[in-house]
Amino acid sequence: MSSSSSSSQRIVSFSVLALAIQFLFIQCVFSQSQNNAFLYHKCSDIEGKFTSKSPYETNLNSLFRQLSYRVPSTGFAASSSGNTPDKVNGLSLCRGDVSSSDCGSCLATAIPEISRRCPNNKAGIIWYDNCLVKYSSTNFFGKIDFENRVYLYNVNNVSDPSSFNMQTKTLLTELTKKATAGNNQKLFATGEKNLGKQKLYGLVQCTRDLRSESCKACLDGIIGEIPNCCDGKEGGRVVGASCNFRYEIYPFVKVA
Ligand SMILES: *[C@@H]1O[C@H](CO)[C@@H](O)[C@H](O)[C@H]1NC(C)=O
Questions:
Q1: Is the CB of 155 under 6 A from ligand 1?
Q2: How large is the angle between the packed helices 161-179 and 212-223, nearest 10 degrees?
Q3: Closest Cα to residue 242, out of 173, 123, 145, 140?
Q4: Final residue belonging to a domain, choices 113, 141, 169
Q5: Of 99, 114, 141, at which residue does a domain stop?
Q6: Are 134 and 42 members of one domain?
Q7: How far is the CA of 31 from the centre of ligand 1 (A)?
Q8: Domain holding 215: CATH number?
Q9: Are 209 and 142 a contacting pair, CB within 8 Å?
Q10: For the whole model, what pTM was predicted?
């Protein structure tokens, strides 16, 4: 683990279930040495398992094909495959600033990887820098996922944490307004803020199955997590299954 590199980040991932916060693991990611770093995955045990060659497996494979086909051109798709009780629901979201080819290659990595990591699980989720893929037997479209979330932070500390945290919150709140404005179909916004000698860069995004009010509620919720995820850190992210933010003191948004 390098603590000197500004790209070195620490991941703290957890799931919130019945108000209990469980810290699962801590791991390092070198986000700039890899273009599309793997962040985290979670297999749901609650929904149980499907058996090989079952209708559920057929529907899941069909869902994955639909997502691979539909997502790269727009960066998002939500889709279902099959009929109850073997219906599978899923969505995939690429980061708003990635090209359609990077989006496609993220899915081409993520889909086999989630199948490998969650073999026969009826529900699962996987996050990379550039995309997320989630599937479930439960219809979750339009609902904020409060359970699945990953925290990441840059290991470097800022010198004035309380004012820095406030500036971060201000920037991300402004970006939330921009992302949820009526004409913003992508539920995505990036921006920057001058902090005297340095600049703060930010990004917010929601999955597009959410209405803009739900997107705002989701983002307000994770922005409220700044003291827990990245208090006084030079960079931080809360990456959920319905929304995410990132801020850094260096430009990280991809320019087309
Ligand atoms: C940041 O601050 C924490 C808590 O004071 C400390 O443990 C850590 O070593 C610091 N990180 C760096 C990179 O100096």
A1: yes
A2: 170
A3: 145
A4: 141
A5: 141
A6: yes
A7: 19
A8: 3.30.430.20
A9: yes
A10: 0.88
For the Cβ of 3 lying below 6 angstroms from any atom of ligand 1, the answer is yes
Structure tokens, 176: 């939330």
Q: List the structure tokens of 127.
A: 């996050």
Q: pLDDT value at position 8?
A: 55
Token pair recorded at residue 164: 């820095």
Tell me the residue type at 15. Answer: S
pLDDT of residue 151: 95
Asked if residue 184 and residue 110 are part of one domain, the reply reads: no
The answer to whether position 137 is within a domain reads: yes
55-59, 196-200, 244-248: the lowest-pLDDT one:
196-200
Residue 234's domain spans which residues? 150-248
What letter represents residue 64's amino acid?
F
Tell me if 30 is assigned to some domain. no
| Residue 23 CB neighbour total at 10 angstroms | 10
Q: Is 2 in the pocket of ligand 1 (CB under 6 A)?
A: no
Distance 145 CA to ligand 1 centre (A): 31
State the total domains in the chain. Answer: 2
